[in-house]
Amino acid sequence: xxxxxxxxxxxxxxxxxxxxxxxxxxxxxxxxxxxxxxxxxxxxxxxxxxxxxxxxxxxxxxxxxxxxxxxxxxxxxxxxxxxxxxxxxxxxxxxxxxxxxxxxxxxxxxxxxxxxxxxxxxxxxxxxxxxxxxxxxxxxxxxxxxxxxxxxxxxxxxxxxxxxxxxxxxxxxxxxxxxxxxxxxxxxxxxxxxxxxxxxxxxxxxxxxxxxxxxxxxxxxxxxxxxxxxxxxxxxxxxxxxxxxxxxxxxxxxxxxxxxxxxxxxxxxxxxxxxxxxxxxxxxxxxxxxxxxxxxxxxxxxxxxxxxxxxxxxxxxxxxxxxxxxxxxxxxxxxxxxxxxxxxxxxxxxxxxxxxxxxxxxxxxxxxxxxxxxxxxxxxxxxxxxxxxx
Length: 390
Hints:
The chain has 390 residues and is an alpha/beta fold. It contains 12 helices and 13 strands. The protein has a 7-stranded mixed beta sheet, sandwiched between helices. A 3-stranded antiparallel beta sheet has the order 7-6-11, with no helix packed on it. Strands 10-12-13 form a 3-stranded antiparallel beta sheet. α4 runs parallel beside α5 and α4 crosses α8. The longest helix has 19 residues. It is globular and about 75 Å long. The mean pLDDT is 96.
């Protein structure tokens, strides 16, 4: 790209920024983290007529796997699609790790599509209570709910805070359970120096606008095993044989090899524009993480005088939290309730949200699936009623 064109893009970007309406919040949930470098990469892709999944997506995938210590990364069009591909990986007809109706334990406090994906894959889901200090799954409740039909655990590193992977892996080993990791809010988080998403069969990630890095929309599935990598690539693109990289595909006389389909599949491929964003954004990740960690440390000091009425999410040792937001719990003994606090914050220009969907068992969608009505979930209820984030 010529210097003149880059200068013109910068001028247009600055002009549009100046023309934006006055923001509603002085402290919003997220702000724009991309600039002319990302835009220039997209323009170059478009001008080169490289629009569908291609070399930029591949470059982003390779770099993503590299910062996670290796393995195989496959980009998809959203974090929710990444969860769906991971769920289908469990019931892939070519591997048959699980069969329809097998039970998966998953957190009651998470984003709905993590649960929806398992249900769409024909699996039975049982919800696990939450820990009100870390917002992670309550592992005592998890272990108590393992039954004769339980075959897998779908863990989530909520708000960037890693689950206790030492204990979780021990539980999975002792009960012969497959582990999936939803890292859509936890890119860059670590447990004892190892990146989340690298402990189980597959890790999933999201690059939505407000997440750690953005590709506008986009997601990633990370696996360590070559056969699983091929299965993921088939699942994301029609079950099409041309996506296989790690095994031989025998020729079939009656089928045109250009249109050969080995298994079922979706079309959840990303565009080159998303890949173009990714190759630029991923080089900013370390700086973004430092800024988030600095913000969290400052915020923790600022709210110290409000304890124990208001407390920040606790990060256990030896976790490295990749702060997705600043999650807070209001004590049941606080002089004012959560709504009073969040209303005052909103009026003062500080944007707030509940902790994702709260207790999913209390959402209207749960009424459609009796299996999600799993009895008392006191921790999830407390987060539902008393938790929020800024």
